[in-house]
Structure to design on (108 residues):
């Protein structure tokens, strides 16, 4: 116990040693927070990753919707009556021997 007390008393008398430890501690603390791989950089990158994931999910959903539309137009699943109806609506045309009765209640 006496040896430990002597060591601490020698260290206590040396203010240069504590100053050096303090400078090293401040140096590492500063770079742990503001360095290239520090805490602030990590937080910034984690926000960017979260934002990129949201955008990725949005585009994946949009791609899925387009894939579904394309799949419905394939020859195996194509409904000719629905295709004919959509063509008439888009082109705003009817056959020469046909007539159209518009119902304003159905437009909503």
């Amino acid at each position: 116990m006496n040896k430990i007390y002597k060591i601490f008393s020698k260290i206590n008398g040396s203010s240069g040693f504590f100053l050096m430890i303090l400078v090293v501690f401040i140096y590492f603390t500063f770079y742990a927070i503001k360095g290239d791989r520090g805490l602030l950089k990590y937080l910034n990158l984690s926000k960017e990753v979260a934002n990129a994931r949201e955008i990725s999910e949005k585009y994946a959903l949009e791609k899925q919707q387009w894939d579904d539309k394309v799949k419905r137009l394939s020859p195996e699943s194509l409904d000719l009556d629905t295709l004919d109806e959509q063509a008439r609506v888009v082109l705003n045309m009817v056959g020469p021997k046909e007539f159209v009765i518009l119902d304003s209640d159905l437009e909503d």
In short: Residues 39-72 form the longest helix (34 residues). Helices lie at 2-13, 15-34, 39-72, 80-91.
